[in-house]
Design goal:
Blueprint: H1 6-38, H2 53-64, H3 71-76, H4 87-106, H5 115-118, E1 123-124, E2 136-137, H6 142-172, H7 180-205, E3 226-227, H8 228-249, H9 259-278, H10 282-308, H11 313-343, E4 355-356, E5 361-362, H12 367-399, H13 409-412
Antiparallel strand pairs: 1-2, 2-3, 4-5
Keywords: Endoplasmic reticulum, Glycoprotein, Membrane, Transferase, Transmembrane, Transmembrane helix
GO molecular function: sphingosine N-acyltransferase activity
Pfam families: TRAM_LAG1_CLN8
């Protein structure tokens, strides 16, 4: 009889132990996450001891952001999305870049399987009758990989910018400690929408739809072969909004009173982005992006200033200018887009008003309402916030106090200015 092999049995036992440990950690994390997502608002319960709000806020934040348990566990449990350090997400990015570079160096003649994560896929050959035309890109299933990878990139950027750039800046300019978390959220929002809004305006400037010549949403349909910058802009916007939805679900930001409306806004936004991309309506998608992003620049700026200098006259001026921009961008221009969908849909060439996947056309009659209704839902949400904005303005004029209608007084201690 052969002697037993304890080494193999020991190795097998160790593997099982590690596997069980990871499973236990994952179950504990998911249980904690479920408790966070289903927890009621911070209304004192019968018999609950009232503690200092600041200490309660610190404890809740620590509960919501558990410490890292190591790269692999953070990776498989999605804890990299909620851990405040950007190290894990940075490792994921660096590993991908190094693997892509190794493949390129050692097997340069073979297609690199990691390229769809980093670069746009599915270039379309140039037209034979126009050799000077730029390379265009069609949709591809690889776009999903691109979007998911840049969700990780945006997670890293958010964590890195807020922790290592904006937080020291907030302390330096004298922001009150209780307001620093909100300041960081809005300062990052300001930086993103300043970039996205500027790029969106530049993208529109290159197209016949420049400044809402709405007939061109339809006359050149389908827009299935996109210029490089249009496809890149669209997919990066998708990554950002998907990452923001995860931020909302994981409660990385303290929820406010209109949490449900904000979730609905993100759902409608993602629906519009994905559906317009799938049915080749990138021009109307770009137009809607611009109306939302440009107005958000001034919303975030007004909030940031009010966190630092509450009640200052310049904050009121910025807020007043924001209302003008919001009214024009989110209502006047969005209503023009709605009117175009309702009245100009028939400008689509007759041969393209059919459902035929090989040609990239999807514009059968009922699709008009599939386009119209989500934009209308977005407008209704904007009107809800518009009502709150005007209530804030009226109270500011009467009481000389600019206060956020959405704020939870106990948690935010006077956060100002509405959050879209």
């Amino acid at each position: 009889m052969s002697a037993p092999r304890p080494t193999t049995r020991q190795r097998s036992s160790s593997s099982i132990s590690i596997s069980n440990a990871i499973q236990d950690i994952r179950c504990a994390y998911l249980t904690r996450l479920a408790a966070i997502l289903t927890s009621p608002s911070d209304i004192p319960q019968p018999g609950q001891i009232h503690t200092n709000p600041a200490s309660k806020r610190k404890t809740k934040s620590q509960d919501r952001l558990p410490p890292s348990r190591g790269f692999l566990i953070d990776l498989f449990t999605m804890q990299w999305m909620i851990h405040p350090s950007p190290v894990t997400s940075l490792k994921m990015i660096v590993i991908t870049l190094v693997a892509w570079l190794n493949w390129r160096v050692f097997t340069p003649d073979a297609p690199n399987p990691l390229s769809p994560l980093l670069f746009l896929s599915n270039p379309v050959p140039r037209h034979a009758d126009d050799p000077l035309s730029t390379t265009r890109y069609a949709k591809s299933y690889y776009d999903i990989l691109f979007v998911l990878f840049y969700v990780i990139v945006f997670s890293f950027l958010r964590q890195f910018i807020t922790l290592y750039i904006l937080h020291p800046f907030a302390v330096k300019i004298g922001t009150k400690p209780a307001k620093i978390p909100r300041f960081l959220e809005q300062a990052y929002t300001f930086l993103y929408f300043l970039s996205a809004g500027s790029i969106g305006v530049w993208v529109m400037y290159q197209e016949p739809t420049w400044w809402y010549r709405t007939e061109h949403f339809w006359l050149e349909y389908p827009h299935w072969d996109m210029k490089y910058h249009i496809k890149l802009y669209y997919l990066l916007q998708t990554s950002y909004w998907l990452q923001q939805m995860l931020v909302l679900i994981l409660r990385l930001e303290k929820p406010r009173k209109d949490f449900n409306e904000l979730v609905m806004h993100h759902i409608v936004t993602l629906w519009l982005i994905l559906w317009s991309y799938l049915i080749n309506l990138s021009m109307i998608g770009n137009a809607i992006f611009v109306t939302m992003d440009v107005s958000d620049i001034f919303l975030a700026l007004a909030k940031c200033y009010n966190y630092v200098q509450p009640g200052h006259w310049l904050g009121n001026v910025i807020f007043g200018f924001f209302i003008i921009v919001w009214t024009y961008m989110r209502h006047w221009l969005n209503l023009r887009i709605l009117y175009s969908v309702y009245t100009q849909f028939t400008l689509i060439p007759l041969e393209n008003r059919r459902w035929w996947t090989p040609d990239g056309v999807w514009m059968v009659g009922w699709m008009q309402w599939q386009i119209f209704l989500p934009i209308l839902a977005l407008q209704l949400l904007n009107l809800f916030w518009y009502f709150l904005i005007w209530r804030i303005l009226i109270r500011a004029l009467v009481y000389n106090h600019l206060a956020d209608e959405r704020s939870d007084d106990e948690e935010d201690e006077g956060d100002e200015v509405k959050k879209e």
